[in-house]
Amino acid sequence: MNIEQILPLIFAGIMGFALLVYIILDGYDLGIGMLLPLANEQEKDQMVASIGPFWDANETWIVLGIGVLLIAFPKAHGIILTTLYFPVTLMLIGLILRGVSFDFRVKAKTEHKKMWNNLFFLGSLIASVSQGWMLGFYVMGLEPSGLSFIYACAIAIALPVLYIMLGCGWLFVKTEGPLYIKATRWARLTVIPLGIGLFLISIGTPLASPQIAEKWLTLPAAIGLLPIPIITLIAFFTIIWALQKDKIMSKKHEWITFACMIVICIMSSLGLAYSIFPDIIIGQLTLWETASSTASLKFTLVGVAIAVPMIIFYTFFIYRIFSGKATELSYD
Amino acid sequence: MEFDPFVLARIQFAANISFHILFPTISIGLCWVLLYFRTRFTLSGDKDWEFAYYFWVKIFALTFAIGVVTGITMSFQFGTNWPGFMEKAGNIAGPLLGYEVLTAFFLEASFLGIMLFGKNRVSNRMHLISAALVTAGTTFSAFWILSLNSWMQTPDGYTVQNGVIMVESWWDIIFNPSFPYRFMHMLVACLLTTAFFIAGVSAWRAKKNVDGPATWKVIRTGMFMAAILTPVQIFIGDMHGLNTLEHQPAKLAAIEGIWETERGVGLTLFGFPDEQARKTHWKIEIPKAASLILTHDMNGEIKGLNEFEGEHPPVAIVFWSFRIMVGIGFLMLMVSWWASAQLLRNTARKTMLINVLSVMTFSGWVAVLSGWYVTEIGRQPWIVNGILTTKDVVADHGSGMVLTTLIAYLAIYAFLLASYILTLRHLASKPAKSLETLQQKAQNQQSTLNNTDASGTEAL
C-alpha cells in the first residue's frame, strides 16, 4: 500500500474516533437533557451543573468528525449532508436550543427559567432523535425506501435511549443524595428498552441490509467477529448486575454503569465500522473514491498528529479539575 | 409564487452568517478585555477588577454559547447549501477549517469551563492561564476562518486540475494577498465593538443607578481603548481598500460607485447608484479625491464597473453598506475622543456621557455587519474570486424545503436575539452592591464547606 491509499484510511479512523467520542460525551449531555423534566427544580440545577464545564467541548467532537469528513472525503460530505438536509437542520435547531438554554436558564429572569428548562429538554430530544434517524438512514445507504424509513425510525428511538442510559451513568458518577436514587430508578427503566433495542438492531441490521448480512454471516469472518456481540452482552449484563439495590448504593460501583456504556458504544462503533468498510456511502462510494488530494491530507495530518493528542491531554486535565461530585452551578 | 432556490439558499446562508458574526465579534474582543481585567486584578489585588471580570465573564459565556451553536450551523451549511464549493475547493477550504477546529474550537471550549466554574477549584494563576488560552483560541479561530475567507477573495497558491482546485503552496494560500489586512481589520473591529459594548452596558448601569466603582473602570477601559484603536482602524481600513483596488477592482468600483474607467476620478460621498441606467444619481463628490486616495495621484486611473459588465457585484448595496461602515467609524472616533477627554478631565458631563455611550452600545455590530456586506456581496458573482461562481456550487434542493428551513432559522434567530438583549438587560440591571454581597455569601459558604470537609477528614 502506498501513501495515497493509507491516508484515507487514517482519516477514516480519525473520523470514526471523533464521532465515537462525540456519541459518548455529548451522549451523556443530551441524555441528561432528556431526563430533565423528571427532576425537581433543585435536581435540575444539579443535573445541569454536572455537565456545566464539559458540554461545550463535548459538542466540539461532532464538529471535528464532520470536519474530517469534509477535509478528507469532500464528495461524500456533499452527498451525505445534502441528502440529510432536513434532519441535519432539525438537529442543528435542537443543538442551538440546547446550547443556549444552558446559559439562559440561569441568567434570564427567574420567571423565564421554566421556559428555558423546557427548551433545554426539547433541544436535547430533537437533536438526539434526528441524529438517530440520520444514523439509521446512513446505514441503509441513504437510499429512500420503506425499509430504510422503518429502520431509520427504529434507530431514531434507539439512539436517544442509549444517550439516556449514558446520562444516568454520568449522574451516578457526578451526583449524590435523592438525585442519585432517582437516577437509579431512571436507569432501571431504561435498561430494558436498551437491551431490546440492541438485540433488535443486531438481528435487524443484517435482515434490512443484504450487504451487511453478507459481511457478518460468512465464515470465517463470523467467528472473528464473535467478540463484538459477546463483549457487548457482558457489558450489558454487568449494568443489570450493578443496578441491583445493594450494589448501586456502594461507592465502588458508581463508575460501572458509565464504563459499561462506553464499552457498549465502542463495540457498536466497531461493528458499524466493519459493516460500512471500505465504503463511505454503503454500496455507492468507497473511501478512496471520495478522498481529497494527498497534499491536503498530508497537510492536515500534521495538524491532527500534533493537536489531537494535546486535545485529549487537556480534556483529561479538565475532567480531573472538575472531578468529584458536582456542586451547584456557581456563576455568582 | 415560486422562489428561486438559489436566491433562497443565499438568503439562508446570509441570515446565518449575519446572525453568527454578531457573537464572535464580541467574544473575540471581550476575551482580550477579560484577560486584561484578570491581569489587572492579579497585579493589583484590586477587587473592582475581579468584580468586573466576573460580571463580564457571564456575558462572555452567553455570547460565546450563541456563537458556538450558530457556528456549528454554518459548518454544516457549507455541505447542505454549497456542496459544490467543497467538491471543487475542498482541498483548500477543508484543511483550513480543520485547523480552526483543531487549534481553536477545542481550546476555547475546554478552558472556558475553568474561566466560568473554576473559581474554587484552581489557583489564580491557572485561572489566568485559562483566560489566556481561551483568548488564544478565539483569536486562532479568527485567524483560520479569515484566512479562508481572504483566500476566497484573493485566491493564491493553487492550480486547477480537471475542474478541481489543487494546492500548490500552503504558505501562499494561508497568507494570501488580502489576508493580513482583513485579519487585522477584523481583530480591531472586534476590539472596537467590544469597547463600545462594555462602555455602553456600563453607562446604562450608571443611568439606572446600579453601578459601582468597577462600572466606571470599565467605561474608562472601553473609551481609552476605542480612542487609541479607532484611528488605527481607519488606517488599516485604508490599506485594506488599496489592496482591494489591486486585487478586486470590480468590488472597489462598486464601493465607490464608479461606472466608467477614468483618470482623476472624484470621490462620491453620497448618491444613488442605478444599475439600469448605469450611473449614480444625485451625487455629491469631491473632485479628483478618489484617484488621490486610491492611487496617490490626482490623475490616477481607476477602473469602472462597465469594464466588468455581468461580472460585478450588485452596486447599490455595496455602495451603501460601505458608507454606513465608514460613517460609524468616524462617529466612533469622535465619541471616543470626546468621551476620553471628559473622563480624563474628570469634570465629566456625566449625564450626557452616559446617554451618548448607551446609545452607542451596539454601534460596532452595525459597522461589522455593513463591513461584511461590503466584502461578501462585493465578491459576487464569485464564491472564489475569478475561479468559481456561487451559482455553480449551490445544492439542488426544492425551494419549498429551503424556504421552510429558512423560516425556522429566522424565527429562532429573532427569538435568540431578543432573549440575548433582554437577558443582557436583566444581568446589567442587578445592582453592583447586591452582587458583591452575593459573592461574599458564596465565599463564606464555600469556606464553611471547606471547614466541614476538613473537620470531617479529621474525624475519620
Task: Note down, in words, how this protein is organized.
The complex is a heterodimer of chains A (332) and B (460). Chain A is an all-alpha fold. Chain A has 15 helices and two strands. In chain A, strands 1-2 form a two-stranded antiparallel sheet. Chain A is globular and about 55 Å long. The longest helix of chain A has 33 residues, at 3-35. Helix content of chain A is 80%, strand content 2%. Chain B has 460 residues and is mostly helical. Chain B is built from 15 helices and eight strands. Chain B has a two-stranded antiparallel ribbon. Chain B has a two-stranded antiparallel sheet with strand order 3-6. Chain B has a two-stranded antiparallel ribbon with strand order 4-5. In chain B, a hairpin with a 3-residue loop joins β7 and β8 (388-389). The termini of chain B are far apart. Mean pLDDT of chain B is 86; it is low at 448-460. At the A-B interface, α3, α4, α5 and α15 of A face α2, α3, β2, α14 and α15 of B.
Counting helices, strands and paired strands, the structural category of chain B is mainly alpha
Rg over alpha carbons of chain A: 20 Å
Structural class estimated from helices and strands of chain A: mainly alpha
For the termini of chain A, the CA-CA separation is: 58 Å
Key traits:
heterodimer; A: 332 residues; mainly alpha; two-stranded antiparallel ribbon; 80% helix; 2% strand; B: 460 residues; two-stranded antiparallel sheet; 15 helices; 8 strands; 74% helix; 7% strand; disordered C terminus
